[in-house]
Design a protein that fits this description.
This is Dehydrogenase. Keywords: Oxidoreductase. Belongs to the Gfo/Idh/MocA family. It holds the Pfam family GFO_IDH_MocA_C. This protein has 346 residues and is α/β, with parallel strands linked by helices. It has two domains: 142 residues, Rossmann fold (3-Layer(aba) Sandwich), CATH 3.40.50; 181 residues, Dihydrodipicolinate Reductase, domain 2. It is globular and about 55 Å long.
Length: 346
């Protein structure tokens, strides 16, 4: 297969290496808003004797005879590129989100539906071994009646200040992964949320900082009520200096399990004889979820070949975004928000 990849930043460069080494990919066509960056990535791939070329503009990817397109560019470009691929009859893998608002997301989904093409969204936790095992255990009933879910996402350091106004905020950019994982692992929908967040920069707590200026928060907590009454919480922070931490705990009336607890989880017990600080913690999401990223791209190639059904279509991105939108409304208005208040529901 010949695959087009648009966006050669951190995640796009990672995807290019995975795709370039995949046995079903013959060649890549790379593009980026900064053409020299795409050219440099293509050159590195060719140095490994992998088939890769770069083009000057993303539009040229669609005229390069590709069989499918992977979108890892800036968020603001996603919806337009998805529509362009759909009109060209090309299946698309796109990093989340489709757009930063419900209306833009729905327009892109309508173009995909009208064209009859496939759109797979990059919620990589669905391809993580631990999250997959948790989903199977919940579905099998071995936990009994599920009553509590706790999700944690913690970045070791915040992104560059210039990224914050473009990110959509902590709920849409970061916690959206937890919202999708909660829906996927439990098999339930979210009925209601209550969200809080903190914007004072802990580095300069007495000054207006970059989070306040961007209208964002760096630490947030959400209580979610699922449609069967299960209580879920999701917390996130940009300031977890101990390391990158993504976990989920699920408790039923018969048993409880955890995802993401291993010898690199940045936790230390204060109990006598408890686990000590790991010698090496997870530095970031690429290291923690590298196998999951590889599995999701392998699934996309199978989807392109018609071997499997879409494992994570665009409606999943819409539902996770609706939860994030409800959280933003809840934080602003300091109240519980029902998902029914957010447009775009099924």
């Amino acid at each position: 297969m010949r695959i087009g990849l648009i966006g050669t930043g951190r995640i796009g460069t990672f995807h290019s290496a995975v795709l370039g080494r995949h046995p079903d990919v013959d060649s890549l066509v790379l593009a980026d808003a900064v053409p020299v960056r795409a050219a440099a990535v293509a050159e590195r791939l060719r140095a490994e004797r992998l088939g890769a070329e770069s083009v000057a503009e993303p539009e040229e990817v669609f005229a390069a005879g590709v069989d499918a397109v992977v979108i890892a560019s800036a968020t603001a470009s996603h919806a337009e590129l998805i529509g362009r691929a759909a009109r060209g009859g090309l299946p698309v893998f796109c990093e989340k989100p489709i757009a930063l608002d419900v209306a833009g997301t729905e327009r892109a989904l309508a173009e995909v539906a009208a064209a009859g093409t496939e759109l797979q969204i990059g919620f990589m936790r669905r391809f993580d071994t631990g999250f997959g095992a948790a989903r199977l255990m919940v579905g099998s009933g071995v936990l009994g009646t599920l009553h509590t879910v706790r999700a944690v996402t913690a970045d070791p350091a915040p992104p560059p200040a210039g990224y914050l106004p473009l990110s959509g905020g902590l709920y849409r950019d970061c916690l959206v992964h937890d919202f999708d994982a909660i829906r996927w692992v439990t098999g339930r929908e979210v009925d209601e949320v209550y969200a809080v967040g903190e914007s004072r920069d802990p580095r300069t707590p007495h000054e207006a900082g970059v989070f306040e200026e961007a209208g964002d928060v760096h630490t947030a907590g959400v209580v979610l009520t699922l449609d069967d009454g299960t209580v879920a919480t999701a917390t996130a922070t940009r300031f977890n200096g101990a390391g990158y931490d993504v976990r989920m705990e699920l408790a039923g009336h018969l048993d409880q399990i955890t995802v993401g607890l291993d010898d690199r989880t940045p936790l230390v017990s204060v109990e006598p004889g408890g686990p000590e600080r790991p010698a090496r913690t997870w530095p970031g999401f690429l290291e923690r979820f590298a196998p999951a990223y590889e599995r999701e791209l392998d699934a996309f190639l199978k989807l392109v070949r018609g071997e499997i059904a879409n494992p994570c279509d665009g409606r999943e991105a819409l539902e996770a975004l609706r939860i994030a939108e409800a959280c933003e409304l809840s934080r602003r208005e300091r109240r519980r928000v029902a998902l029914a208040e957010i447009p775009g529901g099924a």
